[in-house]
């Protein structure tokens, strides 16, 4: 008897939580404005889930051997696709990226917290509800490993070294468009 009322009590509580949640959703009760910060509890839950999801998914991925050539190859990709949101070394993110929630972390500092495999997984799959895009459909694994190699090198790079890396995109080189640019040839050119 006691057992039955205990179960009934739990079921009623769950029903109330579901109904309240439904009302909140239908009424647009959770403010989605990026100018409205998450409460500390929600921020903690989202960020902890983000970190642990990346770490568990990346756990089985075996990274390749890294080389200086991979860092060189990752540089133009990073400068073209990541720097506007994440900044570089001595280069801040765009003004509009300041208005994002969550704000894209400065990878020149944050990259130390992640392994090559974790960066690879995150760049390949992106992160839903954060605006961190998935690059896996548009970029092959080799290119994504090059980007990961460049990201991992950021924390030890000076602003001058960062600036010296080529912005000349691999595809542009392949299409022969690179020569249309008035810039000096990059040191990485074949
Ligand atoms: C449109 C903006 C945007 C672009 C472009 C973008 N990212 Fe992100 N990225 C984000 C946001 C926002 C987060 C934070 C997600 C969070 O903390 O929940 C993030 C998180 C990350 C993280 C984890 C950082 C940390 O410490 O939490 C890495 C690593 C990363 N991005 C790498 C990249 C790379 C490499 C590229 C380019 C191939 C890239 N991102 C392009 C927005 C972007």
Care to give the gist of this entry?
This protein has helices at residues 2-26, 40-58, 68-81, 83-86, 95-98, 107-110, 116-125, 141-153, 159-164, 170-175.
Describe this structure in words.
- With 190 residues, the protein is mostly helical.
- It has 2 domains: 1-30; 40-180, Cytochrome c-like domain (Cytochrome Bc1 Complex, Chain D, domain 2).
- The protein is 55% helix and 0% strand.
- It has helices at 2-26, 40-58, 68-81, 83-86, 95-98, 107-110, 116-125, 141-153, 159-164, 170-175.
- Helix 2 (40-58) packs across helix 7, helix 3 (68-81) crosses helix 8 and helix 7 packs across helix 8 (141-153).
- The chain is elongated.
- Residues 175-190 have low confidence and may be disordered.
- The structure holds heme C (HEC).
- Residues 47, 50, 81-82, 85-86, 100, 102, 104-105, 107, 110, 113-114, 119, 122-123, 127, 130-133, 135, 147, 151 line the site of heme C (HEC).
């Amino acid at each position: 008897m006691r057992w039955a009322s205990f179960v009934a009590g739990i079921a009623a509580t769950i029903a109330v939580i579901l109904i309240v949640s439904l009302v909140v959703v239908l009424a647009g009760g959770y403010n989605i404005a990026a100018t409205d910060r998450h409460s500390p509890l929600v921020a903690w839950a989202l960020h902890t889930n983000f970190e642990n999801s990346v770490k568990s998914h990346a756990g089985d991925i075996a990274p390749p051997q890294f080389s200086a050539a991979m860092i060189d190859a990752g540089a133009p990709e990073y400068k073209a696709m990541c720097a506007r949101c994440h900044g570089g070394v001595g280069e801040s993110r765009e003004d509009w990226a300041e208005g994002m929630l969550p704000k894209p972390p400065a990878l020149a500092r944050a990259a130390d917290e992640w392994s090559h495999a974790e960066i690879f997984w995150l760049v390949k799959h992106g992160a839903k509800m954060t605006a961190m895009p998935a690059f896996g459909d548009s970029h092959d694994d080799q290119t994504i490993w090059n980007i990961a190699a460049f990201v991992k090198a950021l924390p030890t790079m000076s602003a001058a070294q960062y600036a010296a890396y080529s912005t000349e995109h691999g595809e542009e080189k392949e299409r022969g468009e690179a020569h249309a640019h008035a810039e000096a040839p990059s040191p990485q050119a074949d």
